Each structure stands twice: as structure tokens, then as C-alpha cells.
Amino acid sequence: MQERANLLVVGGGASGLAFALCYARLGLSVRIIEKRPSRSLVQKATGVAQGAWHQLAEFGITEKIIGDAFPMTQFVFHDNAKLVAQIKVPPVNGEPPAHLYPQAKLEEAMEEALASYGVSIEYGRQFVGVVDEGDKAKVSIVHNDETECMEVDWLIAADGSRSDVRSFLRIPFVGRDYPEDWSVAEIRSEQWPTEIQAQLFLQSDGVGFFLSRPSHGVVQGILNAKGAADKLCNTFPDATLLYERQFKVSLRRVLSPRHGRVWLIGDAAHVQSPVGGQGVNLAIWDGVTLARALADGRTDVERTLRRRAQSVLRFTDFDYRMLSAKSRMIRYPRNLYWGFAARYPILAAWFFKLISGKW
Ligand SMILES: Cc1cc2nc3c(=O)[nH]c(=O)nc-3n(C[C@H](O)[C@H](O)[C@H](O)COP(=O)(O)OP(=O)(O)OC[C@H]3O[C@@H](n4cnc5c(N)ncnc54)[C@H](O)[C@@H]3O)c2cc1C
Q1: How far is the CA of 174 from the centre of ligand 1 (A)?
Q2: Is residue 131 classed as helix, strand or coil in its secondary structure?
């Protein structure tokens, strides 16, 4: 492999994998470390937007997973148990705006593609510190209680929402936390209505329950309250619970993705509500955009990365507010809009264009 910039990627999630894949595909050497001992099986995203789908196609991933992915074609929306709309999802550029596919399996496919370029994730290695020396950065990595020091041109922090790199450098993560406790659960069930890919159940008290089917026989529920598992089991009588976990959601970002010799991408640089399904897509877009620029010897992508993150955060916050609205003044026009959008799909087109990530 050609040596260009000497790079270290911290984090083997979607953003780190996307960066490493893009860089390695261009024939450049890259090292990627991950603190976990092996690949995570924790389930998060189910939606892969068209933008990320096309980027993954460049690495031959889309054609491998398409047989098991569900194109987004129908979406059902209830308010206080009353059907508001059954939307026939309009195609964006002639294709589904998103596909449903489990994030853990997507990352597995990305890791396999990376291995085909001769790069393996180095598991069990943890970033613990960095000294920026202006033209280089000295990074410390711990593995089996031993510390390794590495000199790099660029350190790529793709280490998630609780980024150790961001904390170590005391980079502010500005924004706010949503007040609710959230929960996510998955069940095994054969009772999913096959022609629909996503269902949304809203309540007048602001609680929203989002259901999707990431793979055959599996249903995921996300609730902006505790109790996603109970809700799933009440909705699907044949349910077998696979897991439930609680989490908090924030709307935060770094003011700039670049700090000297360090770039922050994915959740390390910005976090938002899962409503709107944009986290993994933005993570992949960040990774690919930065890798292409650094491979070209360019560093002028700071503004591009920042602006894209700002737009996505605005969109997901708007989506979240619509979902959790308690006031009739918001709920009534919201439901009216989706009722019309069900009859005239052209009215839903702008929303699904945003979901598609092609903007
Ligand atoms: C319930 C839920 C549902 C979601 N649904 C969607 C959806 O439908 N669509 C969508 O697009 N997004 C969704 N998201 C968001 C999406 O999952 C995240 O935005 C995405 O995982 C971000 O990827 P990342 O690579 O930036 O970070 P992560 O996936 O968090 O990966 C960071 C990696 O860095 C590693 N790491 C951390 N610290 C260190 C260290 N010191 N040294 C070495 N390694 C380290 C971690 O172990 C981890 O593997 C959802 C999120 C949740 C919680």
C-alpha cells in the first residue's frame, strides 16, 4: 500500500469504518483501533438512508446486503390509537429513500469489505491520550496493560458520543439534553404486517412509539419514555423479548470538526435524536467525505462537515418536536398534513427527500 498521510482512526463503528474503507480503497494505508475486544452486537440503527446506501455501493456492500434489506415503501402513523395516515412512500430519484437493515450487520459487512483491502480493525486497543505538536500528533494507545506511542499526521476521532478524544482535549460539546428517558427493545415476532416497513404511534401526552422491522421475524421499538419492551409485548402477542435498554438523547455538536491534528467525525462530533434516522447516515457521510479530502491532501472540508451536521441536527430536532408535541395547535395541523400526504404522495416528497440524505 502507498504511504501518504500517517493516520490513526479511533473507533470501529460506522464512522471509523466508513473513513477507513474509503481511505484504504484509494490504496492508502490506515490503522483503525477499537477498545472493545470484538465486534459489537448491540443493535441501534435500522434505517440506512439512500445517501449512505449509495456510498456503501462504492465498496460493493449494497449488492451483498440488498437481498436481506427492506426498501421503505409504506409507513403508518397513528395518533391516540386512531389511524391518521397510511403513506405510500414516494421514491426519491426513482429509488426508495431508505432501506431497513440492522446496524450491527451493516458494520459487519463494512468490516469484511475493509478486510478485502487488507485492513483489519485492531480490537482491544484503547486511545488514552494525545499531544498535538503542530506538524504531528503523538497518540498513546493501551493494549493488554501496555502503552504504545504512535506519531501520526492526523488522528481521526470516530469514538462515539462519549468520545474519549473529545474529553481528553476538553473540546466543548455544545447543545442540550432532551429531558426524557428513552428505551429501545427488540422482539421476535411473526406478526409484522409485511407490506409496511415502519409504524408510528403518537399520544397526546407527547410519548411516541416508533416501530420498524430490521430483519425477518425481528421488530424494534423505540420509545421516548421507559417501557419499550412492555409496549412491544402488548402490541405483538407472539413476542419473545430479545433485549431492552434505556438511553438518554442529546442534541449536541462540536463547534468545529477539526482541532489541530485531530478530526472528529460521527457521534464524536454531533449527536441527535434517533427520530429521523440520520445518525448512522451522517456518520458514514462524515467518514467518506473526510477520507476523500485527506487522501487528496485537502483540509478544506471543515465547513462542509460542520454545515451538514447543523442541517441534520435542525431536521432531527424538528422531527422530534413534531413527534412529541402535546399542544393541539401543533398536533392538529401535523395530522392534517399527513392525512393529505397519504392521499397526495407529492405532499410527502419533501419529507422523504430529507430522510433520504440526498440534500
Ligand atoms: C436506539 C437507537 C436507534 C438509532 N436508529 C438510527 C437509525 O435508524 N438510523 C440512523 O442513521 N441512526 C440511528 N441511530 C444513531 C446511530 O446508531 C449512531 O449515530 C451511530 O452508531 C454513530 O456511529 P459512530 O461510528 O460515530 O459511533 P459509534 O457507533 O458509537 O462507534 C464508536 C466506537 O468507538 C469505540 N471507542 C470509544 N472510545 C474508544 C477509545 N478510547 N479507544 C478505541 N475505541 C473507542 C467504541 O467502542 C465504538 O465501537 C440510532 C441510535 C440509537 C441509540
Answers
A1: 19
A2: strand
Task: Answer for the pair 277, 45: CB distance below 8 angstroms, yes or no.
Answer: yes
CB 353 within 8 A of CB 359: yes
Ligand 1: centre distance to CA 256 (Å): 19
Tell me how far apart the alpha carbons of residues 235 and 301 are, in angstroms, rounded to a whole number: 46
Protein residue closest via CA to atom 26 of ligand 1: 266
DSSP code for 346: G
**pLDDT tens-digit map of 296-316:** 999 999 999 999 999 999 999
DSSP assignments along 35-78, one per residue? SSSS--------EEEHHHHHHHHTTTHHHHHGGG-EE--EEEEE
Per-residue pLDDT reduced to its tens digit, 209-246: 999 999 999 999 999 999 999 999 999 999 999 999 99
Helix (H, G, I), strand (E, B) or coil at 222: strand
| CA count, 13 A, side-chain hemisphere, 16 | 29
Coarse DSSP helix, strand, coil percentages of the chain, rounded to the nearest 5 percent = 35, 30, 35
Residues 291 and 287: their CA atoms lie apart, in Å, by 6
Ligand 1 atom with minimal separation from the 265 CA: 26
Which ranges of 169-324 would DSSP assign to H, the alpha helix? 228-235, 279-295, 302-323
Q: What is the pTM of this model?
A: 0.95
DSSP 11: -
Rounded-to-integer distance, Cα 253 and Cα 85, Å:
34
